[in-house]
Write a structure and sequence with these properties.
By secondary structure, this protein is α+β, with helices and mostly antiparallel strands. The chain has 2 helices and 7 strands; from the N terminus they run H-E-H-E-E-E-E-E-E.
Length: 119
């Protein structure tokens, strides 16, 4: 389950932010997760809860914003949300396209007890 490696990177990055700002405790970590990343929220939350123990994140919450997939057709340049794994353009029927959104996996903020710090 790749959620454990993602959670491990989140915990590590948030610890670095806390250390850079005096070594305090982390209250929350905010993420943007693209639909195409296929992250299972419950698995990520479970992994985060396991890995944060005995760290400055021990009491931290994990919050995220889902980013819908958005694709641009290579043939007619129509932008659309893919409805299935084949990415068929609703305008011209061409398959595939350029990903415009939905592959994000980023920390957008770390809230420390007593303040907020973006990352």
């Amino acid at each position: 389950m790749h959620e454990f490696s993602i959670a491990e990177a989140i915990v590590h990055a948030a610890q670095e932010v806390a250390q850079a700002h005096g070594g305090g405790k982390v209250e929350a970590v905010r993420l943007r997760i693209g639909e195409l990343r296929q992250v299972v929220p419950e698995a990520l939350l479970f992994a985060f809860d396991v890995l944060k123990q005995e760290t400055p994140l021990a009491e931290a919450s994990l919050q995220w914003e889902n980013v819908p997939a958005r694709v641009r057709c290579r043939e007619c340049h129509t932008e659309y949300h893919p409805e299935d794994v084949f990415w068929e353009c609703p305008a011209c029927g061409a398959f595939g396209g350029e990903v415009l959104a939905g592959e994000e996996l980023e920390i957008i903020g770390v809230t420390l007890w007593g303040g907020t710090h973006g990352d």
